[in-house]
Amino acid sequence: MSNFWRNWMNVWCGAIGLFGIVLVGGSLDITSVPVRFLFNLLNRSDEFVLTPHLRFSLIVLGAVTIGWSLTLFAAIQAVHQLDKPSSKTIWMVIALSVMSWYIIDSSLSIATGFWLNAIANTSFIVTFLIPVLGSGVLVTQKPDHLQ
What we know:
Structural class: mainly alpha
Largest sheet: none
Number of helices: 5
Oligomer: single chain
């Protein structure tokens, strides 16, 4: 993977972490403006009330999202250390993890009336797939001595 695609993936992981920070911000009134904006944007038909249960859920979800971004960052940094034939399997597992999030999150967002979240999720998955597919990390190449 070229430096351009590596940098792209680093920014992508950072964006996920930033989203986690926005979610965690919903835990306190003083830091809840971004998450209030987000929820109002996603579903304006309902009044958004930050109940204690919702605040707790935002803390947990935000923390998991931050952890997921750091785990993806670490996995991506580690896979860069492998030779290309060995890295394909790891890239496939990373892609599977991102695709499973996308399918579950988007389908349930649509089912619960938050369909705009599926559009946001689609932008995240596309910005993940562009460097993964563009760099060719999922393509198996024969080792140099076999070509």
